[in-house]
Amino acid sequence: MHEQADMLILGGTILTMDDQGTIIHNGGIAIRHGALLYVGTEEEARRRFQVPETLRADSCLLIPGLINAHTHAPMTVYRGLADDLPLDVWLKEYIWPAEGRTVNPHMVYWGTLLAADEMIRAGTTLFVDMYFFEDDIGRAASDAGMRALLGEALVEFPSPNTKTPAEGLAYVRASLERWAGHPLVRPILQPHSTYACSPDLLVKSKALADEFGVPWLIHCCETQQEVEDVRRQTGKPPVALLESLGILDSRVVFAHGVHLTEEEIALLAERGVSIVHCPESNMKLASGVAPVPQLLRAGVNVAFGTDGAASNNDLSLWGDMQTAAMLHKVASGDPTVLPARQVFWMATRGAARAFGLDDRLGSLEAGKRADVVMVDLCRPNLIPMYEPYSHLVYALHPSDVRTVIIEGRLVMRDWEILTFDEEEVFCKISEMAQELGRQWGRDTNWRKTIGQ
Ligand SMILES: [Zn+2]
Fold first, then answer.
1. How many whole angstroms from 285 Cα to the centroid of ligand 1?
2. Measured between alpha carbons, how far is 73 from 314 in angstroms, rounded to an integer?
3. How far is the CA of 23 from the centre of ligand 1 (A)?
């Protein structure tokens, strides 16, 4: 007597990322109603389940979907617009003027689809976004079949979407109600930073997060300048300010956390605050080296984020994982810090834990949601394979990701995106970029550039 499943994945090696670090050769995965029904061997899966669809994974590595814990998806539109500049010049002369002219629901929708395209191709199945018009970003994520935690950036001043902090909070409340029960998309609270939000907005946004039981993410201690500015404005550095407002708890996540003292690290560990490490963005903007080995030693949970495409400049987490593993070795003079397995754990389990999703995502275990990534191992950079974690962190290229399943649905099969028209996305972005490029005297016609 067979049990019913929707899909079987047979063959290959399963890197489960469960607590025991189980690796299964000749694996078998059964998926039903968007969840993992069975994770084990091909032999047992064949014997137990009856399915309409079977996927072969021979010569592949099956891993849990990666979680990009901090990004600004629509900023793909500004990728490469301006680089190699001091932060204030980059922001004030390029990014802010560009945003002022172009951020609208149309731009964020198509910019997010481009981001989704890039992220799916790199094995990312959930992204945690902070931008404007997040409902349109959610619409794009949903159309792409991607999981997203939406974060309307709450700021003290008028944003492209809302005129006042109160309007921002009302937008997020309506959004929380609109997306309730959606299988892929969920709004959370994301005040921009302690320098762009008043204490009142910080407190009110946390109250709203607590009312709906959702995470609260903020840019925090990204640059030394920020720490000094906030100290001047409020009399306290960012961490002390948040602590004095009673905000720090296990539903709080900091993007960056570069400039932290030993005492602050101890406090974050005690309060259960998670950090999203964005090494490539921090390096490119010369923000500094986050104290990740110290955070991990203190017991602080750390995830990875790419940050926006204007400051990375790609949305592949593989680059950030490899960069982090190497950066902290050279920064500390200790080649044993951030070993590959720990780095991959941070990108999957650590990220799921940061957003209270450890019971649903981050590993391939029966009962969790079916976000499965198939990596093709028949590649010159991946042969031979003695140890999978090493390959994942030190040798893999995003293009080695072959097939991606999110919530039990095939969104990419054998490198073909199945959920939306990639060509249409490229054309829409090209139109926007030509408009924008003209203002800086750049020719951005990608068809012309690639000789079509
Ligand atoms: Zn950011």
1. 12
2. 10
3. 34
- Distance between Cα 235 and ligand 1 center (Å): 24
Pick the CATH number of 3-64+361-417 from 3.10.150.10, 3.40.640.10, 1.10.10.60, 2.30.40.10: 2.30.40.10
For residues 403-419, give the mean pLDDT: 98
Q: What is the CA radius of gyration of the chain?
A: 21
Query: 261 C-alpha to center of ligand 1: Å?
Result: 21
Average of per-residue pLDDT values in the chain: 95
Neighbours of 336 (CB within 10 A): 8
C-alpha to C-alpha distances, 313 to 10, 124, 362, nearest whole angstrom: 36, 16, 25
Q: Which CATH class is domain 66-354?
A: alpha beta
pLDDT at 199: 97
- Segment 224-262, tens digit of pLDDT: 999 999 999 999 999 999 999 999 999 999 999 999 999
Query: If you measure from the C-alpha of residue 255 to the centroid of ligand 1, how many angstroms do you get, rounded to a whole number?
Result: 7
CA of 276 to the centre of ligand 1 (A): 10
User: Per-residue pLDDT tens for 27-46?
Assistant: 999 999 999 999 999 999 99
Give residue 452's pLDDT: 43
pLDDT band at 444 (very low <50, low <70, confident <90, very high): low
CB proximity list for 450: less than 8 A, separation 6 or greater: none
How far is it, in rounded angstroms, from Cα 286 to Cα 281? 8
Sorted by where each begins, the domain ranges of the chain are: 3-64+361-417, 66-354
Cα 12 to middle of ligand 1, angstroms: 36
Distance 391 CA to ligand 1 centre (A): 28
How close is the Cα of 43 to the center of ligand 1, in Å?
46
Determine what percent of the chain is predicted with pLDDT higher than 90: 90
Give me 164's structure tokens: 């006042």
Distance 300 CA to ligand 1 centre (A): 20
CA of 447 to the centre of ligand 1 (A): 30
